[in-house]
Amino acid sequence: MFDLRLFIEATITLLVIMDPPGTVPVFLGLVGRKSREQRKRAARQGVLVSFLVITLFAVAGNSILAYMHIGIPALQGAGGLLLLLIALDLLTGKGATNHPEVEDVNIALVPLGTPLLAGPGAIAATIVFVRQADGALGSYLALAAAIVAVHLVLLGTLRSAGLLIKVFRESGILLMAKIAGLLLAAIAVQLVASSVQGFITAGGQP
Predict the structure, then answer these.
(1) CA 192, CA 120: separation in Å to the nearest integer?
(2) pLDDT digit string (tens) for 88-123?
(3) Which residues contact 128 (CB under 8 A, 6 or more apart)?
(4) pLDDT at 204 > cutoff 80
(5) Most confidently modeled of 86-90, 131-135, 181-185, 193-197?
(6) What is the largest CA-CA distance in the chain?
(7) Angle at 82 (CA atoms; ends 79, 88), nearest 5 degrees
(8) pTM of the full structure
Protein backbone atom coordinates (compact mmCIF):
# COMPACT_ATOMS: atom_id res chain seq x y z
CA MET A 1 0.00 0.00 0.00
CA PHE A 2 0.98 3.61 -0.58
CA ASP A 3 2.75 4.92 2.53
CA LEU A 4 0.92 8.21 3.09
CA ARG A 5 2.83 8.96 6.29
CA LEU A 6 6.19 8.71 4.54
CA PHE A 7 4.90 10.80 1.63
CA ILE A 8 3.81 13.63 3.94
CA GLU A 9 6.96 13.46 6.04
CA ALA A 10 9.29 13.38 3.02
CA THR A 11 7.43 16.16 1.22
CA ILE A 12 7.45 18.51 4.20
CA THR A 13 11.08 17.74 5.04
CA LEU A 14 12.33 18.31 1.49
CA LEU A 15 10.26 21.48 1.11
CA VAL A 16 11.76 22.89 4.30
CA ILE A 17 15.31 21.95 3.30
CA MET A 18 15.07 23.04 -0.35
CA ASP A 19 13.10 26.17 0.64
CA PRO A 20 11.35 27.24 -2.62
CA PRO A 21 10.58 30.82 -1.45
CA GLY A 22 14.16 31.23 -0.24
CA THR A 23 15.55 30.35 -3.68
CA VAL A 24 13.65 33.17 -5.38
CA PRO A 25 16.04 36.02 -4.43
CA VAL A 26 19.04 33.92 -5.48
CA PHE A 27 17.31 32.89 -8.72
CA LEU A 28 16.50 36.51 -9.58
CA GLY A 29 20.00 37.57 -8.60
CA LEU A 30 21.37 35.09 -11.12
CA VAL A 31 18.95 35.50 -14.05
CA GLY A 32 16.75 38.48 -13.14
CA ARG A 33 18.19 40.69 -15.89
CA LYS A 34 17.68 38.10 -18.62
CA SER A 35 14.68 37.72 -20.92
CA ARG A 36 11.51 35.98 -19.81
CA GLU A 37 12.23 32.95 -21.97
CA GLN A 38 15.78 32.66 -20.63
CA ARG A 39 14.46 32.79 -17.06
CA LYS A 40 11.91 30.09 -17.79
CA ARG A 41 14.55 27.91 -19.42
CA ALA A 42 16.91 28.36 -16.49
CA ALA A 43 14.08 27.46 -14.08
CA ARG A 44 13.22 24.31 -16.03
CA GLN A 45 16.82 23.21 -16.38
CA GLY A 46 17.68 23.95 -12.75
CA VAL A 47 14.71 22.01 -11.40
CA LEU A 48 15.38 19.15 -13.83
CA VAL A 49 19.01 18.95 -12.70
CA SER A 50 17.88 18.96 -9.07
CA PHE A 51 15.33 16.23 -9.78
CA LEU A 52 17.92 14.05 -11.52
CA VAL A 53 20.46 14.50 -8.73
CA ILE A 54 17.95 13.72 -5.96
CA THR A 55 16.62 10.72 -7.93
CA LEU A 56 20.15 9.42 -8.50
CA PHE A 57 20.94 9.54 -4.80
CA ALA A 58 17.55 8.03 -3.94
CA VAL A 59 18.29 5.07 -6.20
CA ALA A 60 22.00 4.61 -5.62
CA GLY A 61 23.08 7.14 -2.99
CA ASN A 62 24.20 4.65 -0.38
CA SER A 63 26.17 2.63 -2.92
CA ILE A 64 27.81 5.71 -4.46
CA LEU A 65 28.93 7.15 -1.12
CA ALA A 66 30.13 3.78 0.15
CA TYR A 67 32.04 2.95 -3.04
CA MET A 68 33.80 6.32 -3.16
CA HIS A 69 34.27 6.47 0.62
CA ILE A 70 32.50 9.82 0.75
CA GLY A 71 30.45 10.96 3.73
CA ILE A 72 27.78 13.62 4.07
CA PRO A 73 30.31 16.02 5.72
CA ALA A 74 32.45 15.84 2.58
CA LEU A 75 29.42 16.70 0.44
CA GLN A 76 28.64 19.61 2.71
CA GLY A 77 32.18 20.93 2.50
CA ALA A 78 32.31 20.65 -1.29
CA GLY A 79 28.90 22.28 -1.67
CA GLY A 80 29.89 25.09 0.68
CA LEU A 81 33.09 25.89 -1.21
CA LEU A 82 31.23 25.83 -4.52
CA LEU A 83 28.53 28.18 -3.26
CA LEU A 84 31.18 30.50 -1.84
CA LEU A 85 32.75 30.92 -5.27
CA ILE A 86 29.36 31.78 -6.80
CA ALA A 87 28.62 34.18 -3.94
CA LEU A 88 31.90 36.04 -4.53
CA ASP A 89 31.02 36.43 -8.21
CA LEU A 90 27.64 37.92 -7.31
CA LEU A 91 29.08 40.26 -4.70
CA THR A 92 31.87 41.53 -6.96
CA GLY A 93 29.73 41.70 -10.10
CA LYS A 94 31.99 39.34 -12.04
CA GLY A 95 29.27 36.84 -12.87
CA ALA A 96 28.54 38.30 -16.29
CA THR A 97 29.83 36.68 -19.43
CA ASN A 98 29.89 37.34 -23.15
CA HIS A 99 28.27 33.97 -23.80
CA PRO A 100 24.73 34.23 -22.37
CA GLU A 101 23.62 30.81 -23.64
CA VAL A 102 26.57 29.11 -21.95
CA GLU A 103 25.91 31.15 -18.82
CA ASP A 104 22.26 30.00 -18.76
CA VAL A 105 23.30 26.35 -18.88
CA ASN A 106 25.97 26.86 -16.21
CA ILE A 107 23.52 28.65 -13.91
CA ALA A 108 20.99 25.85 -14.35
CA LEU A 109 23.62 23.26 -13.46
CA VAL A 110 25.57 25.23 -10.85
CA PRO A 111 24.58 26.72 -8.49
CA LEU A 112 20.82 26.50 -9.13
CA GLY A 113 20.33 22.78 -9.79
CA THR A 114 23.06 21.77 -7.41
CA PRO A 115 24.07 22.56 -4.71
CA LEU A 116 21.38 25.22 -4.15
CA LEU A 117 18.33 23.01 -4.75
CA ALA A 118 19.80 19.52 -4.63
CA GLY A 119 22.23 20.30 -1.84
CA PRO A 120 23.83 18.13 0.82
CA GLY A 121 20.83 18.53 3.14
CA ALA A 122 18.31 17.35 0.54
CA ILE A 123 20.60 14.50 -0.54
CA ALA A 124 21.15 13.36 3.04
CA ALA A 125 17.42 13.53 3.81
CA THR A 126 16.61 11.51 0.69
CA ILE A 127 19.11 8.80 1.64
CA VAL A 128 17.61 8.64 5.15
CA PHE A 129 14.09 8.23 3.73
CA VAL A 130 15.29 5.47 1.40
CA ARG A 131 16.67 3.63 4.43
CA GLN A 132 13.33 4.12 6.21
CA ALA A 133 11.49 2.58 3.24
CA ASP A 134 13.26 -0.72 4.04
CA GLY A 135 12.38 -2.41 0.74
CA ALA A 136 8.62 -1.79 0.90
CA LEU A 137 7.14 -0.98 -2.53
CA GLY A 138 4.50 1.36 -1.07
CA SER A 139 7.20 3.32 0.75
CA TYR A 140 9.31 3.65 -2.39
CA LEU A 141 6.27 4.88 -4.33
CA ALA A 142 5.52 7.40 -1.56
CA LEU A 143 9.08 8.72 -1.62
CA ALA A 144 9.06 8.97 -5.43
CA ALA A 145 5.77 10.88 -5.31
CA ALA A 146 7.20 13.23 -2.66
CA ILE A 147 10.27 13.98 -4.78
CA VAL A 148 8.09 14.74 -7.81
CA ALA A 149 5.69 16.91 -5.77
CA VAL A 150 8.51 18.96 -4.25
CA HIS A 151 10.09 19.64 -7.64
CA LEU A 152 6.74 20.67 -9.11
CA VAL A 153 6.46 23.22 -6.29
CA LEU A 154 10.01 24.40 -7.01
CA LEU A 155 9.25 24.78 -10.71
CA GLY A 156 6.06 26.73 -10.06
CA THR A 157 7.83 29.01 -7.59
CA LEU A 158 10.76 29.81 -9.88
CA ARG A 159 8.54 30.35 -12.92
CA SER A 160 6.41 32.83 -11.01
CA ALA A 161 9.48 34.70 -9.74
CA GLY A 162 9.34 36.88 -12.85
CA LEU A 163 6.39 38.74 -11.35
CA LEU A 164 8.79 40.32 -8.87
CA ILE A 165 10.82 41.81 -11.72
CA LYS A 166 7.92 44.10 -12.61
CA VAL A 167 8.00 45.39 -9.04
CA PHE A 168 11.75 45.73 -8.43
CA ARG A 169 12.89 46.55 -12.00
CA GLU A 170 16.57 46.78 -13.03
CA SER A 171 17.96 48.57 -9.97
CA GLY A 172 16.06 46.27 -7.63
CA ILE A 173 17.36 43.18 -9.40
CA LEU A 174 20.92 44.48 -9.10
CA LEU A 175 20.40 45.02 -5.38
CA MET A 176 18.83 41.56 -5.11
CA ALA A 177 21.92 40.07 -6.75
CA LYS A 178 24.09 41.57 -4.01
CA ILE A 179 21.71 40.32 -1.32
CA ALA A 180 21.67 36.89 -2.97
CA GLY A 181 25.47 36.85 -2.93
CA LEU A 182 25.47 37.62 0.78
CA LEU A 183 22.88 34.91 1.46
CA LEU A 184 24.84 32.38 -0.59
CA ALA A 185 28.02 33.27 1.28
CA ALA A 186 26.23 32.71 4.60
CA ILE A 187 24.85 29.35 3.39
CA ALA A 188 28.34 28.40 2.19
CA VAL A 189 29.93 29.22 5.55
CA GLN A 190 27.21 27.22 7.34
CA LEU A 191 27.79 24.22 5.08
CA VAL A 192 31.54 24.32 5.67
CA ALA A 193 31.00 24.68 9.42
CA SER A 194 28.58 21.73 9.40
CA SER A 195 31.14 19.77 7.39
CA VAL A 196 33.88 20.42 9.93
CA GLN A 197 31.53 19.54 12.79
CA GLY A 198 30.53 16.35 10.99
CA PHE A 199 34.14 15.30 10.49
CA ILE A 200 34.91 15.95 14.15
CA THR A 201 31.86 13.98 15.28
CA ALA A 202 32.65 11.08 12.95
CA GLY A 203 36.32 11.11 13.84
CA GLY A 204 37.32 11.69 10.22
CA GLN A 205 35.46 8.63 8.99
CA PRO A 206 33.09 8.87 5.94
Answers:
(1) 11
(2) 877 776 554 444 444 555 777 887 898 889 988 899
(3) none
(4) no
(5) 193-197
(6) 53
(7) 135
(8) 0.76
